[in-house]
């Protein structure tokens, strides 16, 4: 149902306020009352638009996706990749770039998946081989095993692809939550994500 201009403005204000609080404080600690106060409305007004915090968080997620705030590689063109290794290297370096540009959005997406989307995470973990083969990393690894640019000793393409995908996601998540602590421990600013991705690449290179 299309909202009036006034109600659309109120809806947008609630979503924007929720987004800021979710990113700054996290989804779990943020209450619907907190969001109402930040948006300058009563709590019941928030519930007029959203039945639950999960529904509101979902709208925030959709809003971020519409603004292009996630590091989708849908526009990635692999036609010029001379080998599977070069293709994989390019993909991982683009992930690092997207992480730097959209760290807040990524942090929120990880929180959202942890709190509300565990079933799909399990489904992703158990994705069938044909689905893994369709991912950009899966295509790069299969190409690399076929053209000899990646280590092939007993390597299963699907399992290797799934392992790399899960490792990279885990590294990104740890970078989001632990980068300040790591830099404090090292006594300098250090891009641990790019370093970790380079280690993955060296381990797979033939």
Structure, described:
The structure is a single chain. This protein is mainly α. Helix content is 73%, strand content 0%. Helix 5 (84-101) packs antiparallel against helix 11 (192-204), helix 9 packs across helix 10 and helix 10 runs antiparallel to helix 11 (192-204). The longest helix has 30 residues, at 157-186. It is elongated, with a radius of gyration of 20 Å.
Q: Layout of SSEs?
A:
Elements: H1 5-25, H2 32-39, H3 43-49, H4 53-66, H5 84-101, H6 103-116, H7 118-125, H8 129-134, H9 136-147, H10 157-186, H11 192-204
Helix pairs in contact: 1-2, 1-4, 2-3, 4-6, 5-9, 5-11, 6-7, 9-10, 10-11
Overall residue-averaged pLDDT value: 80
Rounded to the nearest angstrom, the distance between the terminal CA atoms is: 56 Å
Helix/strand-derived category reads mainly alpha
Low-pLDDT stretches are: 119-126
Main beta sheet, described? none
Helix content: over 70%
The count of helical stretches stands at 11
Identify the overall geometry. elongated
What is the number of beta strands? 0
State the order of secondary-structure elements, H for helix, E for strand. HHHHHHHHHHH
**Beta-strand share of residues:** under 5%
Q: Rg from C-alpha positions?
A: 20 Å
Write a concise keyword list for the protein shown above.
206 residues; mainly alpha; 73% helix; elongated
